[in-house]
Design brief:
The chain is α+β, with helices and mostly antiparallel strands. It is built from ten helices and nine strands. The longest helix has 36 residues. The relative contact order is 0.12.
Amino acid sequence: MGGTRRRRARRATGAAVAAVLVVGVGATAGVVWFLGRTDPPAPERCAAELDGTSWYLSTTQAENAALIVGTSVRRDLPGRAATIALATALQESRLVNIDYGDRDSVGIFQQRPSQGWGTVDQIMDPVYSTGKFYDGLVKVEGYQDMEVTDAAQAVQRSGFPQAYAQHETRSRAWASALTGHSPGAVTCTLHAVDEGDAPVGAAARDVLAERAARDLGLPGDALRAAGDDQSSVRVDATTLPLESDLATWAVAHWAVATASVTGAEEVRAGGQVWSRADGEWSRADDEDRQPDGQVTIDLAAG
């Protein structure tokens, strides 16, 4: 009886060890499979390069930067105005259109209804709030030559006026690029269109036209189909109040900065092309070279 129990115990122990080994091997294989299947994609983000340094923004921040700088362009304001506005929005809201803040402050510039900036609904419209900021800025005599902190404070009346200074270089990089002064400086790393919420086909063309009108004031006839391909749109950048070469890159960089919402797959300007697949600008083939003042945007066809 004792020998039988020992043999049974040894068999049970052996079976248990084998089961553990099987589970262990299976678990290891599962971990290897899981890790192989879930390598996280690169985070979506955008950058503006200035003097060899890349200054990053989230895609949401980049879209708002495109609106803020685009508004300064359509108003024919100097680049300094865009730098001041971006630094202000970065400090006030991190360049995000939020519905909360100190006391009754809301929106991208944290403007207060109680201080006469408008209603909550108005201020939460980034187009309205950006316009109101510039309305205040242009009334500040000599703002172009003022320190960012002083110019921003003259408009905002912040309790921490010196805080605006920390955002000046990042803001200058984005203002320079989005006003066309730094060709090929704005890049975005984005997921494939079918992995996100970006529009495709006719919806993408509609969103592109709406954004171009909202941000840059481009009229509808400035955007036309490039040939027979309805998913390829040619933009006449010369309608902007900028010199032709600056207008070209202002539109091209705007198109990259807003690609996460328009579904843009490629942007071609001059002899360069940005692609969503690569996330960078590269030399375009000769047949894809764009004439001065023209930018071609390829959208997701659907």
